[in-house]
Design goal:
The protein is α+β, with helices and mostly antiparallel strands and 412 residues long. The chain has helices at 2-15, 23-31, 46-57, 104-109, 136-142, 152-155, 158-170, 176-187, 196-207, 213-223, 238-255, 264-273, 278-288, 292-312, 319-326, 331-341, 344-355, 366-371, 378-392, 399-411, and strands spanning 19-22, 37-42, 60-64, 69-73, 79-84, 86-89, 98-101, 119-121, 130-131, 144-145, 173-174. α7 (158-170) packs parallel to α9. The protein binds adenosine-5'-triphosphate.
Length: 412
């Protein structure tokens, strides 16, 4: 990573551009927190810089022409986002600003908090020089989240979610005056004016935090959730559910590391919206254009939870019944069903499903059935399905028994 930064600095020298590492990367460097996303700012055209750099060093750049940014990948274990130093002018509150090329000072002034508004020069002549115009280093030491100016949250109310997220992640405090600016923006209902997709992106970053309930609790105390959905309130049961979720995610990863990858954020996201009635959930999913996968998992949870709970709370539920109830669901929904059910039998059945039933395979193959004279088609699939259920229920145990049952089923 250090080599990459030096090379980028030298390349900027050749192009006659100022170049800096900035933002969260610099903040985390001072905090001693690992960060594998380098944020680079160049005083000039970032896309031309990224394309030229990648050509020279055989790396790969994805450019985002609309934003004038690029992402360089191809390095081991980290990536780099490159942006042009920008100057922003907010013409209307809560609406994205007009943007023009600027110098690093301009770029740092448009940032959210002092701790994110530091840069380190990487050009050879001044490599390592810290640019900290707003006291970011001091605030890092004191543990303060401090905005750069009084209109910060009026210009961009999503910064309220960001302030809370960083405060809770680092166990910092939102500085007193900054808190009063936030309260003023809340009093003026600024969060209701923001485009929903921008709120969505910040909400997703909260669900991606290690402990998302902390920022959610703080956010609720500061400004409620009415800008997300009118009826949404902080739930008494959330602390229990979120804690269970984090334990279950760790448990899943420990036991099923090689199985399907699960998305923790989708679990927290579902717990958050779950208290709403189905029609409000569907509306929120549409309004915010949440990712289809996360939305459909949540809707399927809401629609199926009663059937799952009823089916799985029976002590003597057949393994095949458990399998039929859980197999069509994503693993995130399976874990959610367990977390929300708070029922010993449900947990036991879900664990059996994951440990035992879900891995079951028949000894018989399609060609074995064809060998018995079964024509390929729906009938074929039905027989294989019944055989698998018999296997899961322990009725057939080896290939011989599977064959015998297959013959019986064919005669029916
Ligand atoms: P994380 O550790 O969560 O990735 P980050 O600081 O890298 O934190 P990003 O959301 O990736 O956060 O943003 C990168 C940088 O862009 C921030 O450090 C901040 O300087 C700036 N930034 C992002 N969003 C805003 C915003 N809404 N207003 C002003 N500056 C912002």
């Amino acid at each position: 990573m250090a080599d990459f930064i030096r090379l980028a600095g030298r390349f900027a020298d050749q192009k006659g551009m100022g170049a800096y590492v900035v933002g969260g990367f610099v903040r985390d460097l001072f905090l001693g927190v690992a960060n594998y996303d380098i944020d680079l700012v160049v005083e000039g055209d970032a896309i031309a810089f990224a394309e030229g750099f990648c050509e020279k060093f055989s790396l790969h750049a994805v450019t985002h022409k609309r934003f004038g940014t690029a992402t360089i990948s191809g390095m081991e274990g980290f990536k780099a986002d490159i942006a042009s130093a920008r100057k922003e002018t907010y013409e209307k509150p809560a609406v994205l600003p007009a943007v023009s090329f600027g110098l690093i000072q301009d770029d740092l002034f448009r940032r959210d908090f002092t701790i994110n508004a530091m840069a380190i020069a990487i050009n050879a002549s001044c490599f390592g020089r810290l640019m900290d115009f707003y006291g970011g280093q001091d605030d890092l030491k004191k543990g303060f989240i401090r905005a750069l100016h009084p209109l910060s949250f009026i210009d961009d109310p999503t910064r309220i979610l960001r302030a809370v997220r960083f405060e809770q992640r680092f166990d910092f405090k939102i500085e007193r005056q900054t808190l009063s600016w936030i309260k003023e923006a809340v009093r003026r209902s600024m969060l209701h004016l923001v485009q929903k997709h921008r709120l969505r992106d910040e909400l997703l970053l909260i669900f991606n935090e290690k402990m998302p309930l902390k920022p959610l609790k703080r956010l609720y105390a500061l400004c409620g959730f009415s800008y997300i959905s009118e009826g949404l309130r902080f739930q008494r049961h959330w602390p229990h559910y979120f804690q269970q979720a984090s334990k279950r995610i760790a448990w899943y990863r420990e036991h099923f590391a090689n199985r399907r990858h699960i998305e923790p954020y989708a679990i927290y996201f579902s717990l958050f919206f779950y208290p709403l009635p189905l029609k409000d959930i569907k509306k929120a999913m549409l309004d915010f254009a949440f990712h289809k996968g996360a939305s459909s998992r949540l809707v399927s949870l809401k629609e199926n939870i009663h059937t799952i709970r009823n089916g799985l709370s029976k002590k003597n539920a057949m393994p095949s019944t458990v399998w039929r109830l859980l197999e069509p669901l994503s693993y995130e929904v399976v874990l959610l069903a367990e977390i929300l059910s708070r029922h010993k039998e449900v947990s036991r059945h879900i664990e059996d499903f994951l440990f035992i039933y879900n891995g079951q395979r028949l000894h018989l193959k399609g060609e074995d059935l064809a060998g018995l004279g079964v024509e390929p088609g729906p009938h074929f699939k039905k027989i294989l399905d019944k055989l698998l259920m018999a296997k899961i229920d322990g009725i057939v145990r080896d290939k011989e028994e599977e064959l015998r049952l297959a013959q019986k089923l064919m005669q029916k």
